[in-house]
Design a protein that fits this description.
This protein starts with a strand and ends in a 5-residue tail after the last strand. The chain is 9% helix and 62% strand. 19% of the residues are buried. The chain has 128 residues and is mainly beta. Strands 1, 2, 3, 4, 5, 6, 7 and 8 form an 8-stranded antiparallel beta sheet that branches.
Length: 128
């Protein structure tokens, strides 16, 4: 199984500075699916650097466009089988994504960053 997702937009909120541009490095990216019976997590350490450019803002938040970069996460046969089982049985499914990031601007300390993922695709393969 392979998941691809593009970071398309970010909203920064809080009591920090809102630079016109800054860079983030995605150190680790996890995607998980779960239901009442279990969970399966796909992880990658992409060391992917993206540039964020401010498109609008207020005193307490700013919206940023993100340079086009795609993160790809793959799973082995065991994790793929577990994910397929979760998605096809066990009731309601939940999905989540977690990114561990580093910013090149210390002025962002104290803020939260919410990402929008787009152009997302999931390819099922490597399963039994």
């Amino acid at each position: 199984m392979k998941l691809q997702a593009q970071f398309t937009q970010a909203v920064v909120q809080g009591t920090c500075s809102f630079p016109s541009t800054f860079q983030l490095t995605v150190q680790r990216f996890d995607a998980a699916v779960s239901d009442a019976t279990g969970s399966a997590t796909l992880s990658v350490d992409p060391k992917l650097t993206v540039t964020l450019t401010k498109t609008s803002g207020t005193a307490t938040s700013a919206t940023y466009s993100i340079s086009e970069h795609v993160v790809t996460v793959s799973a082995d046969a065991a994790t793929t089988s577990k994910a397929i089982n979760i998605l096809t049985s066990g009731g309601q499914n939940n999905a989540s994504a977690t990114a561990y990031i580093l910013a090149d601007q210390n002025g962002l300390a104290g803020c939260t960053i919410q990402f929008t993922l787009g152009k997302t695709s999931l390819t099922l393969s490597n399963f039994s």
